[in-house]
Request: fold
Amino acid sequence: MDSLLHAFIFLAAGVIAVPIATRLGLGSVLGYLIAGALIGPFAMGFIDDAERLMHFSEFGVVMMLFLIGIELQPSVLWRMRIPILGLGGLQMVITTAAIGGVAYGLGQSWENSLAIGLILALSSTAIALQVLDEKNLMKTQSGKSGFAVLLFQDIAVIPIIAALPLLAIATLGSTTGTDTSHATESTNLILHLPGWQKAIIVIGAVLGIILAGRFLTRPLFRYIAESRLRELFTATALMLVMGIAVLMNMVGLSPALGAFVAGVVLADSEYRHELEANIDPFKTLLLGLFFISVGASIDFKLLALEPLLICGVVVGLVLIKLVILLLLGGLFDLKGGPRYWFAFTLAQGGEFGFVLLSFSLQNQVLPKATVDILTAAIALSMVLTPILVVLNEKFIQPKYQHKDTTDVNNEEMEDQDDAVIIAGFGRFGQVAGRLLIANDIPVTVLDHSAAHIERVRRFGFKIFYGDASREDLLHTAGAHKAKLLIIAIDDKEKTRKIIDIVKHNYPHLKIYTRAFDAIHYHELKAAGADYIEREVFLSSLKVGEKALEALGMRAYQARRQALRFAEHDRMSTDRIGQHLDDNTRFISETRIAHTEVLELLRRDRKIAKTSVDHAWDPSGHE
Reply:
């Protein structure tokens, strides 16, 4: 019952605080942080173990890195190597040196100063990416630069964990970390192995993830997809991410980094969009829980005892990071508004800082008093970030808005999602898709048959597994940014369902679809489809046209008759469709339309006999 009560409290706090914060323009992250602070052990006291909650909710960060990786193809990641290594590396080195230098100047030992610098140089991946995503900045220059820095920091966590025990203070007699150290030993299976053995196991684990992602996941997901059970696919996706996190913990690596590597490996998989759609709800929920746990971890009693010291650390941390990030942004050609977005979203401590502080305490690198102060400072800096973002958005960005418009538009045009989504890639969908691709128009293709996807991919088509009648999958496939949806599936009810979903959630998206017959045509038109083509109408018309030619009619005359017939059929079909509920009137209008088309074509044939109109048809010239 306690677990149910706690779950209700978490959800209620988020549901109440986040909409209020969003309406006030503070963003969802600050809403979660405020909710956590209010229900935490140092305020209302509804939550009494914020640290354990944070360890659980950090899995949301793991999922987020997996989803980010799955959107980055290896070629894209390779193109980002300069900002990742250059910008990210410089940020870590310079920030560590600056913060460590200040700590040393304030009387800390060089070992403590270096540890503090390394820990506080990290930024919050969860908060920064959430802010960039909410502001639609992930594909802009500032978003790419911020992501490069965050990715380098996640990679840097590994050597930092390896280096911290070397800074241990032998004379520190702390006994606080005994039990937690035992917990760490129980999960890290290579903790006491020699260095060369650790290196081999770590490299083997990373290679294992890459090889498994490349060769084992495709047959696994195909097997799961053929069951047509959505919940089984969701369970498999969660099992995959959890398995990677467990493996990374066992070899002492960052679970988030392992998930990111796995995501990059699966970026070219036909099951990419289905994975995203299934994992995203869990990621969003766990990230919200993570932000609540950060807010709940703020020790207001310690803040009341040492207000000046803690506030000084927070302000100093944010200012040092802001200055360094602004300087590095200018050095890497970030100008105007994007430069300030880059700096303001990364000027806080990171969630991995909590992990490293706990690790430092266990290994007697930092004393407990220092760890408590730095923990409070990191949490408060994370709370401060959404406020800084609001200040940047209200007072700094308007000064650069006009100047930066062209640059931002160019960036978005360069990286825009596919303008066309095709649902179903059988015989009908393939013809439309091949025509678009031949004219250099990229398309996102969704199909619900794993066997069919495997066959089609052999011919070089990019096609993804997924049911297009799911709104979350359409969103993942880019429906919110696409211009056109072509529905080419062979299921009447599902076609109608897709149209209803798109009209409700993506009214800007034009819908082109096929109909099975005239009745289905009218149903789809009433549902709101923008263009409908009966699936055998044009092919049947073409056969009729060729039959006229075979029976002696000139090609231009046969073509004219076919076009006349098609135009009249479309007009009469629309007229007849107004009487679907009146069977007698429907039959009467159908007979009238049949008589009309006969008269029209006969009259047109008489006119054609007295005119010369065959210049385009040299085959019959004498």
Observations:
- The longest helix spans residues 368-414.
- The two ends are 94 Å apart (CA to CA).
